[in-house]
Amino acid sequence: MNTFKELKNLPSVKAQINFTLSYNNMQSFKDAFVSIKEAYPDIRLDDINVTLFQKSSFYFENENLMEIDKHLMSEEITRILRMDCERLSLNNFLRKTYLRLYLRYIKNKRYPLKCQALASTCFLDPYGNIFPCSVYNRKLLNVREMNNNFDYLWNTKDAKRLYYECATYLCPVCWSPCDAYSAIVGSLVKALFL
């Protein structure tokens, strides 16, 4: 909290707190928010990003962890959305839309908007390997193979195949905020009316 307070005092920094809902902290967001508010009374929900636990065999290396109870998750997301009555901001809009659409994702086990993996996003690991996203363990290539030519990357047969797989639910089908936010922006009109 001391670091957060110091960062909030810097005019060029937009400091935020990230709260990841998982099976360890389900139903505790409100208590956490109240505790943060005691330490920093000016905190607003706009200062907090809320994400949901994701599994990934190569990024998080947590594939064996327990799944979150979908009913409890839905209840917690609904409680957070009810708490959020703040003015509209970009962070507020993205968080609320992400959470609202996560409820659809839980119900249908399909991402509610077209995935942007290998359309506008990709995941680059520390070794230079490029993947569609941080959840789909399908290495496309290494940046050393690209010769600084991103057109080459996006236009390979493998990239087109993986893009198709991600766009048509042939991947692990996540609603990770890393990709969900780009999907929201990429399908903004649809996101507003879902």
Structural features, described:
Helices cover 43% and strands 9% of the residues. A 3-stranded antiparallel sheet has the order 3-4-5, with no helix packed on it. The chain has a two-stranded parallel sheet with strand order 1-2. It folds into 2 domains: 2-109, no CATH class; 123-167, no CATH class. The chain is mainly alpha-helical. The two termini are 36 Å apart. Helix 3 (70-83) packs antiparallel against helix 4.
How much β-strand is present in the residues? 5-15%
Query: Distance N terminus to C terminus?
Result: 36 Å
Number of helical runs?
A: 8
Based on CA inertia axes, which overall geometry fits? Answer: globular
Number of domains: 2
Low-confidence stretches: none
The average pLDDT value, as a whole number, equals 89
Cα-based radius of gyration, to the nearest Å: 18 Å
Helix content: 40-55%
**Class from helix and strand fractions:** mainly alpha
Strand order of the largest sheet: 3-4-5
Report the order of strands and helices. HEHEHHEEEHHHH
Largest sheet: 3 strands, antiparallel
Counted beta strands: 5
